[in-house]
C-alpha cells in the first residue's frame, strides 16, 4: 500500500508555482488483524439442446462435508492450536474480535475431522520412521478426562522419531490411555532396529523380541548432576567430568561422515569410556548399597552396554536428547489446553502434531500459502487411505528417497499449505 504526501499549497511564497523535482520514500511496517473473506463457488449448468443431458462440474472435494471452512481457515485453526498452543476458547475470542462468531464447539468439531483426514498421511510418515535403522522413543504423561467422572487420569503421549543421523527427520506421536509396554510393542510391530530410549521397563519386551537397546548417556549424567546438586559429591563431579569429555568428542564428530565418526569415537571416546567404567567399578566397591551415590553409579553400570553401544555404531547417537526435544511442544501445549477430552481427541491431536512437528524438523513453516501447485490429494480426500495418499505423493513427484528437505512432510506442509491431506483442491 502506498500513501502519497504532497504539500497542501504548491505555490511558493514568492508567488511562483512549485515544480516537483523528486521524492523521498520511507517504509513502515503495518499489521492487519485477521481478515475473513467469503469464497463463492459457482457451478454452471450445461445442457444438450438435442437430448437434454445435463452436465455440471462436480462439487469440489471438501474436508468438512458441506461445511463452510476452507482449507486455509482449517489450517489456521490447527496451527494456532498445535504450533502456537492457543486453546480453542482463545481462538473463539480472537475470531470474535475480528467480527466472526465461531463457537469453540464448532472449532472442536473441525479439529476432530481434520485429525481423521490427516491420519492416512501420518500412517505413511510412521512407515517412513519405522523404515529407519535407528528410532528414538520417549513418553510423557498427559491428563485425559475419565469418561463419566468429570475427573482426569494419566494418559501418555509417546514420541517415536527417526534417528538423529538419519537423512529423513520426522517424528510420529502416539496417544494412549496408559504407559503399558504393550503400546510400544504395538507401535513398533515387526520393526527390529536400534531403539534409543531411557531405562523404562515398557521397552524391555521389545528388546527380548530382537530390538537392539541403545541407552541415553544424558540420563546417566543426570543422575550424577542431581547427586552433585544435592550434596556437592566429588564422585559425582568426577563422573560428570568424564561424561563431559565424551560429549566433547561428540560435538566434534557430529557432522562427520559415518566412517570417520566411528573412527574418531573409537580412538578418542572409547578410551574415556573405559576409564570411566573402571573408575565407577572401583568407586562402587567402596560404597554401601542403598546410598544415593551407589544408586547413581549402579544406574550406569547396569546399563553400560546400552550406554556405550554408540561407540561401535556410527548411526547411533550418544543420547536421546533429539527425541526429548520432540516432547517439549507437548509440555508447552498442555499448560494451555490442560487435558485431552477423550482418547480419540488425544489420538487426533497426536496425528496433527506429528505432521506439524515433522515439518518444523525439516525447516518448513507450519503455515505457508503457496499457489501454483495442483493438489493430487484432492481425489483421495473423500476416501483417504494409505494407498491413495501414497499414490498422491508419487503423482506429485514425491519419492520417499528424496532429500528430507523436499520430503513428503515439507512438501505437504508448505506447498499445499500445511493442509496436508487437509488441503484438497486448489483455489
The SS-based structural class is: alpha/beta
Strand content: 5-15%
Helix content: 40-55%
Shape: extended
Largest sheet: 5 strands, mixed
Q: List the uncertain runs.
A: 368-386, 391-427
Order of helices and strands: EEHHHEEEHEHEHHHHHHHHH
- Within the largest sheet, what's the order of strands? 5-4-3-6-7
Count the strands?
7
- Tally the helices: what do you get? 14
Q: Gap between N and C termini, in Å?
A: 25 Å
The radius of gyration over CA amounts to 28 Å
Mean pLDDT: 82
The count of domains is 3
Which short descriptors sum up this protein?
single chain, extended, disordered C terminus, 3 domains, 427 residues, alpha/beta
